[in-house]
Amino acid sequence: QVQLVESGGGLVQAGGHLRLSCAASGFTFGHYCMAWFRQPPGKEREVVAVIDWGSIGINYGDSFNGRFTISRDNSKNMVYLQMNNLKPEDTAIYYCAANSEHTLNPKKYEFWGQGTQVTVSS
Questions:
Q1: Mean pLDDT, rounded, of the chain
Q2: Could you count the other beta carbons within 10 Å of the beta carbon of residue 85?
Q3: Angle formed at CA 59 by CA 77 and CA 100, multiple of 5 degrees
Q4: How confident is the model over 46-89, as pLDDT tens digits?
Q5: What is the C-alpha to C-alpha distance for residues 24 and 111, in angstroms, rounded to an integer?
Q6: In sequence order, what are the residues at sequence separation of 6 or more whose Cβ sits closer than 8 angstroms to the Cβ of residue 41?
Q7: CA-CA distance, 110 to 122, in Å (whole number)?
Q8: Helices then strands, each counted (H, E), the chain
Q9: Which pLDDT does position 62 carry in this prediction?
Q10: CA–CA separation, 1 vs 75, rounded Å?
Q11: N or C: which terminal CB in the chain sees fewer CB atoms within 10 Å?
Q12: Distance (Å, rounded) from C-alpha 37 to C-alpha 111?
C-alpha cells in the first residue's frame, strides 16, 4: 500500500533551520510529482513547494522562495524540505504529498502523509 512518512519536524527558535524528510513507498516514486504543504493552526492548507519527476520543474508558494528548498532523491524514494531562517508564522503541520501531475492545488493530490509538526518559537 502507498505510504508517505514525514520526519524531521520539531521545536526550533526563530532564525533556526530544520530539514524535513518524506519516505515514499507503494507507488512508482520516479513517476510522481512530490510536494510539501502546510496547515497553520486555524488556517487552510497551503502549498509550500512542488517538485516534478526530474527535479526540473520546481515551484514555491508565496513567502517561501529563498528560505525553503525542496529536493528529491529518486534512488531512495525520498523528498526533502530544507527550511532556513524560520519564523514563528511558519508554525504548522507539514505534509508530504504525491500526485501524477504537476499541480499546486492540494485538492488534486492523490497521496498524503500524516504530517509532522513544526513549531517555531519567538
A1: 95
A2: 12
A3: 50
A4: 999 999 998 899 999 987 768 999 999 999 999 999 999 999 99
A5: 10
A6: 91, 92
A7: 35
A8: 0, 11
A9: 85
A10: 19
A11: N
A12: 12
